[in-house]
Amino acid sequence: MKGMQKPLPIKRDYLVVVNPNAGKRKGQKDWKEISSCFMKYGFTFEARFTRAVRHAIELTVEAIQEGYRKIIVVGGDGTMNEVVNGIFLQHVCPTTDIELAMITVGTGNDWGRMFGIPSDYVQAIQVIREHKMHLQDAGMIYYFNGTEREKRYFINIAGLGFDAVVVRRTNLQKERGRNGKMLYMLNLLRSLVFYRSTSTEVEIDGLRIKNNTFTISIGIGKYSGGGMMQTPKALPDDGLFDITVVKQIGKGDLLLNLKKLYNGSILEHPKIEGYKGKRIVIDSDPLIHVEADGESLGHSPIEFQIIPAAVYIICGTYPLSG
C-alpha cells in the first residue's frame, strides 16, 4: 500500500499495553493478578507499561512496526483512545489488520460497558479467548490549540462545551491523585455554578443549525461519564455519528432531568435535539472546547469525520446496527 513502511514478520504473541495509573493505580496494583490469568489460560504476550500521557500512542506505533497485530489494553477509556491513535498513526499496515481487546481497570470504562466487557478479570480474559470480533467505526477530529490545527482519532464519544469543561476539571484532579467513579458527577455539579451557554453554528452534512448551546455530544458509542447515555441511539458500526445538541437550558431544569442521562430518554426533552451525520463542522463565539474519550483536546473551529468499519475489536456483546 502507498505510504506503508516495509513490515517485519508478524508476531503471534499479544502486545499488552498497561496503564499503571488507571483506576486509582489499579493497573499497577492488579497487574500481577491479570498477568497470572493470562498465563493460566495460555496467552503468550509482552507487556509494556505507559510512563506518561500519550506514551501508549508511541508504544502502539512501535509495536506494530515490530510485527504485533494483536493488542490488549489494560487501562481505561483514555488508554484505549491512545492505543487507537497509535493504530491510525502507524504506516505499516491497514488499521483493520489489528485486533484490539481490553481489560478494563479505569473508573468510567464506558467503551467496555458498550461492548459487554466484564469487570472481572477472568471473565474478561474469557471474552478474549472466545475471540468474537467485529468491525467498529472510528472518528477523526480536527481542532485548534491556539493557532495550530491538530488532529485526533477517537473510538467512543466526544463532547463540546459544558461536557469538555467537566472533563478538563476531572482530568486535572486525576493528575493530582484524585479519582473515583463519583469524580465526574461532582465536577458536573460544580461546573454548573459558572458555566454559560455559547453561541454555536453546527453544520451536519450540509444542514446548518444555529443555537445558544449548552453542550454537544458526538457519539460512535452511547456511554460516557461512567454510564451516562448522552447519545443513547448511537450504533458503533452504522457509519454515522450520533449528535446530541443541548440548547440553552436552566440549571434547575438540567438537574431535574439528570436521570434522563442514565435511562436513555435524554432526547425526549424539548431543549435537546438529536441528529445523525458523517461530517460535522462546529464554530462558536466565544471559543468552545472539545474532549474525546475523556481526553481534553483543544477548541473551535472543530471538524469531525467518521471512518466507517475502521478497527476490529474483540467484544462480549455488540450493539449491531441491523
Low-confidence stretches: none
The chain-level structural class is alpha+beta
Task: Figure out the total of helices.
Answer: 10
Order of helices and strands: EHHEHEHEHHEEEHHEEEEEHHEEEE
Q: Assess the beta-strand content as a share of residues.
A: 35-45%
Number of strands: 16
| Gyration radius, rounded | 19 Å
Explain the overall architecture.
The protein is globular. It folds into 2 domains: 14-133, Rossmann fold (3-Layer(aba) Sandwich); 140-312, Tumour Suppressor Smad4 (Sandwich), CATH 2.60.200. The strands form 2 sheets. Strands 7-9-8-14-16-15 form a 6-stranded antiparallel beta barrel. A two-stranded antiparallel ribbon has the order 10-11. Strand 8 and strand 9 form a beta hairpin. It has helices at 22-29, 31-40, 55-66, 77-89, 110-114, 121-130, 162-175, 183-191, 251-256, 259-263; strands spanning 14-18, 45-49, 70-75, 99-104, 133-145, 148-154, 157-161, 198-204, 207-219, 223-224, 228-229, 241-247, 272-277, 279-285, 289-292, 295-314. Helix 3 (55-66) packs across helix 4 (77-89) and helix 7 packs across helix 8. The longest helix has 14 residues, at 162-175. 29% of the residues lie in helices and 36% in strands. It is built from 10 helices and 16 strands. By secondary structure, it is of the alpha+beta class.
